[in-house]
Amino acid sequence: SFSPTAQGQLGITQLETYKGGKAAPPAAARAAAITAAAAGAATMLRLRCKSKSGTHAVAGLSERSSLRELQARLSEATGIAPAAQRIMAGFPPCDLDLARADASLSELHVKSGDTLIVEEDTARRKTATRPNGLPSPRVTAAPAERRHVVPADNSCLFTSVSYALDGPVAAAAPAAAATAAGRARELRRLIASVVAGEPDTYSEALLGKPNAEYCRWIQEDTWGGAIELSILARFYECEICVADTQTLRVDRFGEGSGYARRALLIYDGIHYDPLELSPVDGAPHRPPRTLFPTTDDVPLAQAQELAEEARRRRQFTDLTRFALRCLACQKGLTGQREAQRHAEETGHLNFGEV
Predict the structure, then answer these.
(1) Which residues lie across from 104 on neighbouring strands?
(2) The one catalytic residue among 95, 153, 166, 251
(3) Which has more confidence, 35 or 267?
(4) Catalytic-role residue among 49, 94, 156, 241
(5) Residue 175: which H helix or E strand, with range?
(6) CA distance 255 to 226
(7) DSSP 72-86
(8) What are φ and ψ of residue 327, in 5° steps?
(9) What pLDDT score does 9 carry?
(10) Active site residue 318
């Protein structure tokens, strides 16, 4: 990621004595004090935001600032009240969890150099009141399908499938992140085992490389796609449907195989996320649903609606023409092929859309 610009320097006045005639501490002690002060200083963030009113600089926030503070600054810059904000960050842009108002920007993975996308979300619920000022009776909302954002770490397909089919990781971060990464590695090994055991089916013509080479390749930090999804659908005995936000096509892996369950993913050209059905307001303790009967097409229709909404918001990436910048060396790149080639040549894996 971009290195933040230095916000200033510690001003240290070299004095021979302190007030009261006491001798100044030795040089080593002064150096230790300076180091401790520097270690305690929060890193200031260089942020921008984009909204319908234009692009604005967002100053005065550090990695320790809270989401609540960020929303206040964004409200000043965009005129959108915090209660009506929808904030997307990172690449590909993903929604920030606005329920975590006291979480630090570091915890939310907001980094220096990020451009935040801020929109007015008219659908966000506002508390209704009666004429006497008392809250209106609570109405239980219908469950709504939503995207569950997983890390953009080159294993998003495997993490998404594991989340949908194995369920969310029941652990606190960072243990949850480590467990999710372990699950992704297990699925990569599974796919390599299946491909190695069926060389006639998974030939060089299908894989684009020799069978043995593919089996090594898929166990590295490489992107997955249709081949991997078809194998995972067979392994889990579950139909896996992927809604594409650019083409609005829904690809069904395992369709016609007689599977009773269906998992839903959304894909924006470079990133997969699982879809889940949030619990109704009256049952917040229940985990979200990630599996649906194949006889029920309503969740599938909702997935298509989410893809259409994402397309309207242009939340997709044209793989052949999108402009990228390597955040490690700042090199400009165009399209998926250049990004993959650059990653192979340099080992740099952190890219941002220009």
Answers:
(1) 66
(2) 153
(3) 267
(4) 156
(5) helix 175-197
(6) 13
(7) HHHHHHH---GGGEE
(8) -80, -5
(9) 34
(10) no
Catalytic pick among 271, 273, 326, 342: 271
Is the CB of residue 291 less than 8 Å from the CB of residue 261?
A: yes
CA distance 156 to 261: 21
Examine the residue annotation and report whether 153 is marked as an active-site residue of this protein.
yes
What DSSP character marks residue 264?
E
241 is catalytic: no
Say what the pTM is.
Answer: 0.53
pLDDT in tens, 53-72: 788 889 889 889 999 999 99
Domains and CATH numbers, the chain: 47-120 (3.10.20.90), 145-312 (3.90.70.80), 323-353 (no CATH)
Cβ 354 vs Cβ 325: under 8 Å = yes
Each residue of 250-285: pLDDT tens digit? 999 999 999 999 999 999 887 899 999 876 555 556
Tens-place pLDDT, residues 111-135: 888 889 888 875 554 433 334 343 4
Neighbours of 194 (CB within 10 A): 17
Q: State how far Cα 300 lies from the chain centre.
A: 22
pLDDT tens digits, one per residue of 184-238: 999 999 999 999 999 999 999 999 999 999 999 999 988 899 999 999 999 999 9
241: DSSP letter:
E
Sign of CA dihedral 33, 38, 39, 42: positive
Question: How do strand 239-244 and strand 250-253 relate by DSSP bridges?
Answer: antiparallel
What distance in Å separates the CA atoms of residue 276 and residue 261, rounded to the nearest whole number?
Answer: 14
Beta partners for residue 293, in sequence order = 261
Q: What is the distance between the alpha carbons of residues 1 and 190, in angstroms, rounded to a whole number?
A: 33
Unique residue bearing structure tokens 């005129």: 79
Cα angle: 350, vertex 352, 354; to 5 degrees? 155
Active-site residue 348, yes or no? yes
